Amino acid sequence: MKSIECGMLGYICKGDAGMFSSDVPIEKAEKDVLNRKSFAASLAKVMINHDSSEAFTIGLYGAWGSGKTSVINMVTETVKKLSPDIIIVKFNPWLCSDSKQLVTQFFKQLSSAMKLKNHTWANAAASIDSYSELLELAGSIGPTSLILSTIAKVLGKRAKAYMDKNDGDLQKKKNEIVKALSEQKQKIIVTIDDIDRLSEAEIVSVFQLIKSLADFPHTIYLLAFDYDVVVRALTKVQNGNGAEYLQKIVQVPFALPKANSEDVERVLFEKLNGILSDVQEGEWEDDTWARLYLQGIKPYIKTIRDAIRYTNTFTLKYELLKTETCVLDLLGLTCLQVFEPVLYDMLPLYKDVLCSNIAIEPVSDYSVERVDHINEVFNIICASADGETRKYAEEVLKILFPRAFGNEFDNSRQRQQLRYVRKHISEPEMFFRYFSLSLAKDDIPSSLINNLVYDADKDAFSETIKAFLDSGNDVKLLEALNSYIVQASTTHVTTERAKVLFMYLVESWHQLPLKDPSTFVSIPPAWEFLFCIESLLDYICEEDRYPLLNAGFKNHDVDIVNIALILSELEKQHNRLPERNSINVKAPVISLDNLIALEQQFLQRVQKEIEEETLLRKESVSQTLWLFSLIDQDSYKSYITRLIENDLQLALFIHQFVNHGRTTTMYNAYKTWDVGWRDIELCIDSDIAYNRVSAFVQSEEFAVLPQNVKEDIAAFLVEKEKRDTQKNVMSWGANIQEIQGKLMQSPGER
Length: 750
What we know:
This protein is mainly alpha-helical. The chain has 36 helices and eight strands. It has four domains: about 220 residues, 3-Layer(aba) Sandwich (Rossmann fold); about 180 residues, no CATH class; about 190 residues, no CATH class; about 100 residues, no CATH class.
C-alpha cells in the first residue's frame, strides 16, 4: 500500500501495523514530537536559577490532553541533569481518595524524598512527619494554630498518646520545618499534576496546602491544570472570585504552547499508515480520503491524545472488521464513534433512511415527502452532535451516506456494483456489519479467544479467566470459548491442544454456580463450562479421555465443584442419575468401568474436604453433596453427621440447601428463599437443627459470616417456624422482610 497522504501534507512513513498506542505522557525530551523540549528546558532553568528563599509557585495551564504531564516530565528531566542536588517531589493528588489523605500523602512523599536524597535531612523529615500526623489528627487542613490538647478532647486515645510524647502546637511544628529548610538552603521542586481531575473540594485543598500548610522556604511548586476548570471550582467552593484567588497563589502563569497542527498530523498519519499497511491500492480512493480527512476528521483531532484515542479505537475496529467493511467508511464511522458518541449511537435507529437512494425515485408527491423526511432525520441525527463540531459531523455523514445525504446522483450499474464490492456502509446488506461486529463495552475480541484456544500458556490463560471472573463476564467468555471451539472445524483444534485446554479450563474456574441469580432466563456458568468440556472431549480419541479425566480428578488445583459437575454429566450419559436429572442426549464418552473408577476418585476428594472442614465453606456445593449421597448414601450420612456436630458446620450445611427464586407482581419482582428440607433431614432432625441454629445465630461466629450465608440461615429459621404453625404449604418460604426481621434478633445485626 502507498502511504496515506492528503494534498500538500506530503509523504508519511509507515509505523508498526496493528499496534495500540499508549495514551501516556512521554518521560524524556528525546521522544518529544511537538517541539516543546526547548520550552521545558527554559522553564527548568528558570526554576534552577530562582534564588529567592520564599516559596514560589508556577502555573502551567492547558486543556485535558494538551500534554501538560509530558512538559512536567521534560522539566524534571532537565533539572536532574543540570542540578542533581535539587530535591524533586512528583505529587499526583488524583491518586488520593479524599482531601484528608491528599494532605497526609503529600507530606509523606515530601519526607520520603528528603530522606532518600540526603541522610542529613533526617531531622527535617522527622519534623515533617510530626507535622503531618498532627494535621491528620486535626482531621482537616484548617487553621494552623490548633493545639493538640484541644484535638485530644475530641479525637480521644490516639491523640492523647501522641500528645504525651510530642509538643502539639501545629504552628510550632511548622516553624521547626521552616527553620531547618532555611538553614540548609536546599531547593525543593514540587510538581503537582492532574489538579483539574479532582473534586471541587479537593482542588481547594491543594491550593490551601500550597498557600498555608506547605509554604516552605526554597520550595518551588509547578502546578499543571486546566485553568477554566480550576477557576470554576475555586469560585464555587470559596464563594468568591476564583481567578483572583488563583492569582494570589500562582506567581508565574504559563499557558502551555499549543501543539502545532502539522506535528499532530504527522503523528496521526504515522499511526494510520502502520495500521493500514496491508490495505491494497484498489481498496483506497485518494479523493474520498482527502475529502473525509480535511472536512470531517481533521477538525476533531487537535491534540496528540485525540490522535491516540482515534487510532486506538480504529485499530480494534479494523482488526475485527477489515475483511467485511470498507476501510474509508470505517475511518469515518470511527471518527463519529470517538468524538460524537451520542450521534454514533443513533445511527442504527435510522438504517432505512441512511441506506435509502432518493435519486432513483421518480419525482412525485411521495418522493418529495420522502426527501423532506430524510432531511428531517438528517437534522435529528446531527442535532445530537456537539454544537461547535456539528458541521464536521454533517460532512462525515454525507460522505458515508452519499445517496441519502450527499446528493450523489451517479447511479450507474458500474457505480452500484463498485459500492457493493467495496462493502460500503450505505449498502443495506452491509450496514449492520459496521455495528453488530463492532465491540460493545462487554464484547470479547475474537483475537483474544483465538489466542486462548490456540496459543495461550497456562499463566496467560488463567490470568485472562481471572480478569473476566472479576469483571462478571465469565459466562460471556465461556460462551465465546465454546462457540470458537465448536466452530474450529475449519482450522481444527489438535488433540494435544484439546487436552491442554481441558486442563486449563478445569483448573481456572472455581465453584461455578448452577444458577445465575441475576436473571430469570439465562444459561448458568456451570452449563457453559460443561458445554466447553464436552466440545473439547469430542476432539480427543476415546482411549485418551479417561486418563485425561482421571488426571483432572486427582489434580488438587481443580475445584471439587467442577469435578462434581463433570462427573454428573458422565453419570447422566450412563443413565445412572434419577430420572428427572437424566436426560441423556449423547453417547457416553467413557466406559462404565472408567466411570466407576472416577467415582472413587471423586469420593476420596470430597471425603477429604469434609474431614478438613473446607467443603461447606465453598459456594454451590449442593450438587457435590447430592452426588456424594447418590454414589454412597451410607458414607454420605456418616461423614455429614459427624461434620455437622459442629454448629458452624451445621449452619453452613443448611446454607447449601437453601434455594433462591423470584416472584413477581404487576409492579415488582422479589427475591424468595426456599429450604430443601428433604436434603437436610436426610442427615439431621429438623427440630434439633432448628434449636441448635437458633442458639448459633446469637454467637460471634454467626456475626462474622457472609451476609448471603446469614440470610439463608435466617430463611431456614423463618420457614421452620411457618412449617410448625401453618398448614398451608404455599405460604412456606421466606421473603426479605421476614429474613431481615429474624436477623435483627441476632446481636451482631442490631
